[in-house]
Amino acid sequence: MTSDKKNTLDALKEIGLSGQIYGQGEQLVICLHGWLDNSDSFKPMLEFIDEDKNFTWIAIDLPGHGHSQWRSHDAHYYFIDYVYDLKFLLEKLRCQKVMLVGHSMGAMICNLFAACYPGNVLAMALIDGIGVVTTKPSESKQQLINAFRQRSKAQQQSNTKLFSNFEEVVAARLKVSDLEYENAALLMRRNVEILPEGVKLRTDPRLKQHSGFRFSAAQALACLENIEVPTLFLKASNGYPLIELQLKVFEKCFTQFEVVLINGGHHCHMENASETLQSISFHFDAYNET
């Protein structure tokens, strides 16, 4: 990776990404958050790190999220493009082998990257997310129609919706998640811009549009089969039912796979940050080559 914290942040900025860095070890760990979250998703966990000598942890704001740039006006947010973003990031940081931590959608990005580029991943930890979201072949056409309908609708609407105050933003997030207030507020502080006339979301509105394409279950399993990267799956005790179903489908794709239960909801790594970090660090210590 690049020589120091400032150079690394500058390298991220050159490719339109923002991030936060913890620790100062030789082995790089990349942390990828979930949909509509940002790098502060990992802040409660990584704040327990006190001058880590083994790892340098970089929590990224994915494109369209947090402080990172939006994709160009003629682009959209296909899941597979996030996998390329990760590949491009490692090339930019000149990092040959990395460890990966992903939550929810970030976990899905991590396991697909590891399937495609196993030689670049020493180990990974998936937090309440696994596999990829799929669509039945019989529903592919409707998926495409829905995506195009939303694109057309978005072009006719203004992207300048303002909230009257920050509390209104947090309340809106609480309605659509199982987050506790403190964690919802933490995430949304990085996802908003405070203006004289109100509070504006930093997240790209296009993130909420239907994707025009998804893998079928058969395609997803073919892409993810025989992942040899040592993988720790951190399962939330009170997570979403979809994750339980995904686990049953995709756990057979991994040749080295361990499951650890973490108390809490879908954002269990924020609710039980110390326990989560301890589990991940123990897993990574076993495969650290530095």
Helices and strands, with pairings:
Layout: H1 5-14, E1 18-22, E2 27-32, H2 43-46, E3 55-61, H3 79-92, E4 98-103, H4 105-116, E5 121-127, H5 140-155, E6 162-163, H6 166-175, H7 181-190, E7 192-195, E8 198-201, H8 217-224, E9 231-236, H9 241-250, E10 257-262, H10 268-271, H11 273-285
Parallel strand pairs: 2-3, 2-4, 4-5, 5-9, 9-10
Antiparallel strand pairs: 1-3, 6-8, 7-8
Helix pairs in contact: 3-4, 6-7
Description:
It is globular and about 50 Å long. With 290 residues, it is of the alpha/beta class. Helix 3 crosses helix 4 (105-116). The strands form 2 sheets. A 7-stranded mixed β-sheet has the order 1-3-2-4-5-9-10, sandwiched between helices. Strands 6-8-7 form a 3-stranded antiparallel β-sheet. Helix 4 links the parallel strand 4 (98-103) and strand 5 (121-127). It has helices at residues 5-14, 43-46, 79-92, 105-116, 140-155, 166-175, 181-190, 217-224, 241-250, 268-271, 273-285; strands at residues 18-22, 27-32, 55-61, 98-103, 121-127, 162-163, 192-195, 198-201, 231-236, 257-262. The protein is built from 11 helices and 10 strands. The longest helix is centred in the middle third of the chain and has 16 residues, at 140-155.
